Amino acid sequence: MWQGSGVDLDAYLTRVGYQGDVAPDLATLRGLHAAHVDAIAFDNLDAVLGRPTVPLDLDSLQEKIVRQGRGGWCLEQVVLVAAVLDRIGFTFSAFAGRTRIRTGNKFGPALHVALCVQLDDEPWLFDVSFGAYGPHVPIRLAENSRLDGDWPFDLVREPNGEYVLRFLRPEGPAELYGFTTDARYPSDFELLNHFCLTHPRSPFNHRMVLQRTQPEVRHLLAGSTLTEIRPGEPATFRELDKDETLSAPEEIFGITLEPGDVQALRKILDGP
After folding, report:
1. What's the maximum distance between 2 C-alpha atoms anywhere in the chain?
2. Which fold has domain 4-270?
3. Where are the transmembrane segments (predicted)?
4. 213 and 131 in contact (C-beta within 8 Å)?
5. CA-wise closest residue to 69 among 258, 259, 266, 214
6. Is the pTM higher than 0.85?
7. Could you give the CA distance from residue 123 to residue 202 in angstroms, rounded to a whole number?
8. 123: nearest Cα among 144, 147, 139, 146
9. Domain boundaries, the chain
10. CA-based torsion, 31, 32, 37, 39: positive or negative
């Protein structure tokens, strides 16, 4: 189901800068998570550029993200990293979460997808695609679990049984998304992908959204507003001019774009 036999593991490990041996253990899971979020940005540019499809087949994703140096939105990244984990020998399932940050809505559509990895009969939340507010390493999937350090997170459980992942910011906890661990499958991803690409209420098809999580700083670009987050400090915000916005994918988010894509984005920013 997760296509592990089709993944070019060496090429992926080179893309994310992971060095060393891999095995289905916690050390590898931590190392892959940190390397992936450091190297691969959240990127909705195909939708903004008006492409009719965002393919979720593994060959297309390896070409785009691994070989071309692009990012991808959560569904694309989950399909890719699931194949990697499957190839290495991890046992896992996928689930969907209802994003709360920036919406405040606990009952919106469950559009975000992440993985629950089983290690020694203990579940771990493995989420490499939530972007600037997401965790940097896996977190044990249990009520009141915590990640401490420069980028602290915790998991709480609500009376209805949903887990909520929270980013513990100086200004107070930020609820990222609520979820249960009910299994989702690649066929479910296709439906969510279609919504994100085509629905008028999709948050991803009408403006550029780029996000990247690095050890010292996290960046989010929504339209022309750049958010910068550093450990233990309130987030800062800055409006970019058109030239800064066009250069941001490569200079800030490490995304390699074709010259034609840059020109198409310039036309979009110029407006009708």
Report:
1. 57
2. Arylamine N-acetyltransferase fold (3.30.2140)
3. none
4. yes
5. 258
6. yes
7. 31
8. 139
9. 4-270
10. positive
- What is the enclosing helix (H) or strand (E) of 259? helix 259-270
Q: Which residues contact 106 (CB under 8 A, 6 or more apart)?
A: 98, 100, 178
Instruction: Tell me which residue of 236, 194, 229 sits closest to 212, measured CA to CA.
Output: 229
Distances (CA, A) of 119 to 29, 69, 111, 138, 186: 10, 31, 26, 12, 22
In whole angstroms, give the CA distance from residue 27 to residue 239: 39
Query: Per the structure block, which two tokens stand in for 6?
Result: 């089709």
Q: How far apart are CA 90 and CA 39, in angstroms?
A: 22
Of 18, 50, 76, 71, nearest to 219 by C-alpha is 71
Q: How many CA atoms lie within 13 A of 29 on its CB side?
A: 22
Span 53-81, pLDDT tens digits: 899 999 999 999 999 999 999 999 999 99
SS3 11: helix
Q: What is the edge-to-edge ordering of all strands in the sheet holding 91-99?
A: 139-140, 122-126, 112-119, 91-99, 172-179, 163-169, 153-157, 146-147
Count of Cβ atoms closer than 10 Å to residue 35 Cβ? 18
- pLDDT value at position 15? 98
- The pair of structure tokens assigned to 112 is 């975000």
pLDDT in tens, 213-237: 999 999 999 999 999 999 999 999 9
Which helix H or strand E contains 225, and what residues bound it?
strand 225-229
- Grade residue 104 by pLDDT with cuts at 50, 70 and 90: low
Identify the residue whose tokens are 């409006």: 239
